[in-house]
Every structure is written in C-alpha cells, then in structure tokens.
Amino acid sequence: MDSKQSPVTIPALKQMKRDGKKIFGLVAWDFQIAQIADRAGVDIVSVGDSVGVNLWGHANPLEVTMEEMIIVCKAVRRGVKRALVSCDFPFGPLQEGADAAVRAAIRLVKEAGADIIKLDGAANFPEAVTAITRAGIPVWAQFGLTPQTAMEFGIPYSAQSAPGAQVPEGMTTKFVEQARRLEKAGAVLLDFTNSGPMAGPAVVDAVRVPVIGGFGGGPWLDGRVRMAHAAIGYAASAIEKPGTYANVAKTTLDALTALGEDVRAARQIKY
User: Fold this and answer.
1) Residue 165 above 60 pLDDT?
2) What does pTM read for this prediction?
3) Are strands 211-213 and 44-47 parallel, antiparallel or unpaired?
C-alpha cells in the first residue's frame, strides 16, 4: 500500500460506506506499530484503552489513566501520517457528565493529537456525544452486546458473542434505536460490538454513518478494527498458541534466546 496517498478524512469514510468499500482499523499503542500500520494502508489507527492491560500491566482496562492515554496517543500520532488517529477515553470523564467529557476530549485533541475521540459505552451518554460534537471534536461512539444487555434478554453472553450467533429480534430493534440515537447526537462513526449477522446488517442499513466492529464484529459491517498486537501474535500468551496472522512472540522468544546463547558463549552478537 502506498503510504503517500491522500490523508484519510471522515467524509472519505462516509463515502466508503456509500460505495460499499470496507473500512480497515487497527488498535495500536506505540510509534513503531503506528508507522507500520500507516504503511499498510490502515484507515483508522485506534489508541484503545486496552493499552492499560497490555502495555501498562493493569489488572483491568478501567485502571488506565488520562495521562497514560495521552502518552501513548502522542507516540501513535508521531508515527501516523495518512490514517485517522482515534483515542479512547479512560474510564471516568464520560461517566462524570458532559462537561467533564468535553474537557477530556479537548485534552486528547490538543495534547495528544487525536483526530477523533472514541467513547466506549456511548449509548448511555448521548448528551456527552452531542456536547463533544458541538465543541468541534468528532466522536466515534461504541455500543452493542455486553454482559449487561445480554442479561436483559435472558441469554448467555458467551453464546451471543460467538461467530454466527443469532441476536433476538427484540435486541436488534434495541440496537437499531441506539444507533440512530447516537447518529442523531452527532457521532460520525459507530463501533458495534458483538453485532451478529442479524443485528449488524440492520444497524448498518439504519444509519448513514459507518458502522465498524471490533470484538465480535463481522463482514456484515462497514468495516473491522483489530488489535495489531493480537493480529501479529505479539502478546506473551501467543508463545503457547498460534497467532492469527503471525506469531511474533515466538519469533521474539527464539531471537532473544539465541542472543543470550551468543552472549554467554562469548560470541560476537549480531547487529
């Protein structure tokens, strides 16, 4: 992919939806992966709050701080020239109200260089979506099937998040309503988690903005976003299991083991 192509814009993503072209997003947290993603032709590089667990070693994503999100978003911003850079809110500002959400969004744009702000659980906070949009900051709003919404319908979350799972008609109606509400609130992109092949297409057809899926998405959406480190098998857990497109963790383990053997054997190391 030619990284010298014109920069990606939000109107361009909307045109891709109209043209039936799939949008490609990757989650990244560092300068090097951001550069590689940009060269690969990614449309959106998303700085996800999953960085808290995967880079900082937090026990859960809720522990990541605004300062940590700003640090990693600044690193990604430096590595991206063409793609849009999205940054997640850490847990807190969205839940504290619209004013706090606007202040946080302004920080992520001014200090971290984000092009668009991603709000997890946005379906419960449409007023914050509107407030951030009025401040001139584009919003990528997340909604979808979670353990809480699954319980409302008395269905097992794990079953519904499996590929090919059928979402009940009542839930499809609920998600279509949420998507339309978020679009009306001003969201320029939607992230529909665990969409399923029934609710997913219904939501895509119900709104004019692109609907992209991360966890539990599928080809029925306007595009997909995947964590780059998971796609290349970078995490330490990939040593024991194959990666989806590569197993960088196993390659890294083998390389570092070989380096250690050269050092201990007093051999010249490779540069």
Assistant:
1) no
2) 0.89
3) unpaired
